[in-house]
Amino acid sequence: MKGKLLAIALFLALLLPLANSTRGEGLRNYLDEERSSHMELMGYRNVSQFMALAETNPEILCDELDMDYDQLDEILSRMPRVRFFDQVDPEEQPLGLLLEDEPRIVSYEELLYQQPEYVDMNVVDLIPNCTPIRDQGNRGTCAAHSGVSFLEYEFVNYGGYDDLDLSEQYFFYACKQRDGSPDSDGTTMTAVRDVVKYDGTCLESTWSYNPNPTDDPAQGPAPDGAAEEAKGFVYPDVKYWGPFLKPSIDTLKSYINDGHIISFGTAVYNSWYQSPETKRTGVVTMPLSGDTVAGGHAMDLVGYVDNTSYAGGGYFLLRNSWGEDWAYESVTGHPGYGIIPYAYITNYWQGGFTAA
Among 27, 139, 178, 244, which residue has the least CB neighbours within 10 Å? Predict the structure, then answer.
């Protein structure tokens, strides 16, 4: 088995880059109809995505499609040559959501059963109304970045501010006073909700963000006057859904239709977390049957596209906090933003909130 894995890795490493049109070639010329349909529903819609998965997680791919390494090697030998220049560095993609529940992986067959027969084919894009993309650096502060993105969005679009740069540093410090895990470089969505409702956060100019970890995850204490200033950026009227009482996709879309973004947390799986193609395009794929959890992550839903060829009947537009080097050739046209299938949210939701 190790010999076959090495052969596949060497084969992929020697491939040369092609034009983007070839990178995006579909899978139906290389897989039979059943397997290509299977992979497309899981979010693998082109050669680049398939080859990135074969490079980073060939065992998972073989298990998913019930094939051996010889079969995979034969398929790869017929595919166009693609080379991945940007390998994933976990330090550039820090996680930091403390999972309150580790969900069960939903199979391809279950996704087929969940697939809607009809959707309205609507498109809503709130990205132009968002503040600039931030970068959490090497710290597990994704939840604070998600919460601050929500606050900035609401105060800029509905609170009379032309521009706003709030402090992720203070926000995360406030989360650590609430989450019961002072030594963990991460926090929970319930802590994020409560900071938004009761504590708020100060201006970035009052307490600027440090992208580097220290021995104290909270990096306190807060500067003098920061807590008082933060009270001016509290947002008490939020609707929260926990990991065990999940919102429907139609409910989430209705809030986006009303012009509000959604802060949420989810489990992250290695099939897309380790993919150089996801890093390039921002396309989050569905977990595969043999997948493993890399950790938890918080982001924001900032729009949606109905499309019955995607798992769950469409996908959400996604705002991340890994800077613009993530999704640098984003399918949304905006570096730092990506897409995530409705079915991913339905099955792997870990809590979230929006404006009530």
Answer: 244
